[in-house]
Amino acid sequence: MRESEYYSYFVGELPKGCQLCVKGAKLVLFTTGICPRDCFYCPLSPWRREDVIYANERPVKDELDILEEAKIQEALGAGVTGGDPLARLERTVRYIQLLKENFGENFHIHLYTTGALATREALEKLYDAGLDEIRFHPDIFSPNSKLFQKEIENIKNAKDFDWDFGGEVPVIPGGEERIRWYAEFLDNLGAKFLNLNELEFSETNLRALIDKGFKPVSDESSAIKGSLDLGLELLRWGEESTSLSYHLCTAKLKDAVQLRNRLKRMAKNVAKPYHEITEDGTLRFGIAEYEDLEELYSLLVEEASVPKEWLYINEKKKRIEMPEEVAIELADAVEGDVKFYIIEEYPTWDRIEVGRIPLP
């Protein structure tokens, strides 16, 4: 077992999908929120638990949205997820074909599925479309359910195709016997890997996890106490007991590495001249807020002599954007009800604001 440079742990070789993901080079293609299961630990937001489509944070209205997002990210591949992407099989197959047609055969695509809908016919369509890697997440923690039995039977079909296949499940404290069972099942089937994810609290699974007695590692972390330690124990066991590769994906990897690297890839392609790209990949700039933006714009250009190319009227957010240094200077010079701030935003489609400093 080794520790990676990405705050994760692994045995053997990282799956190709993970190798690109940690670099922030994987487009997250969410093809539907529909899923045949209702796992108590599911972290999906309420608005994604419907038949919706997203490319990263961008709502997809047509196929061009997917291509545009992949180009902005300079993506080298895509992770197809949901819900269960097989709940909208034809849509998912089309999107895989679309990405391969536009970015080439080397554009690596992996997909997550419960296995409940992974019939031989469905897998054949995915394979023919160009899917490179498939990861199965059956409900191993409900072994007596009919749906689980169906999932396991369907997973057996994956060995008949020339792709990388394996499993991916959360590390739930107390669930070590079931995870070991699944690892042995995959190993006997000829699978390549088992990915283990450190369990985390989210807005939607918080109550269910607390009701089951789970606690966070600390007040500053969303990670579940005991999940990481169990994951490390399972990797040590797996290295000795199976021939699978393992990757223990930590909460820190997702927050401090994968997201940060993706933001950096995107920032350089969306940044305007007045944006400063920070070390974390966020966009930093100044803004001015005022009731009449046209009036303010004229004042800044004609009376404050600010070059027009330094100013951008953002009607949607009701503000004028500008370089940070300009905002600092204007905050000292402009009187009245104009308010100036230094802003930090993600370079994503939704432009989430992560920092706001008022200027005196």
Automatic annotation (TrEMBL):
One MF term in the entry's GO annotations: iron-sulfur cluster binding
Q: Which parts of the sequence belong to the Radical SAM core domain?
A: 20-239
Pfam families, A to Z: DUF8061, Radical_SAM
Q: What keywords sit in the KW lines?
A: Iron, Iron-sulfur, Metal-binding, S-adenosyl-L-methionine
**Keyword Amino-acid biosynthesis annotated:** no
Q: Does the keyword Iron apply?
A: yes
SUPFAM superfamilies xref list: Radical SAM enzymes
InterPro entries hit by this protein: Aldolase_TIM, DUF8061, MJ0021-like, rSAM, rSAM_sf
Do you know which PANTHER family this protein is assigned to?
A: BIOTIN SYNTHASE-RELATED PROTEIN, RADICAL SAM SUPERFAMILY (PTHR43288), GLYCYL-RADICAL ENZYME ACTIVATING ENZYME MJ0021-RELATED (PTHR43288:SF1)
**Name used for this protein in its record:** Fe-S protein, radical SAM family
* Organism from which the protein derives: Palaeococcus pacificus DY20341
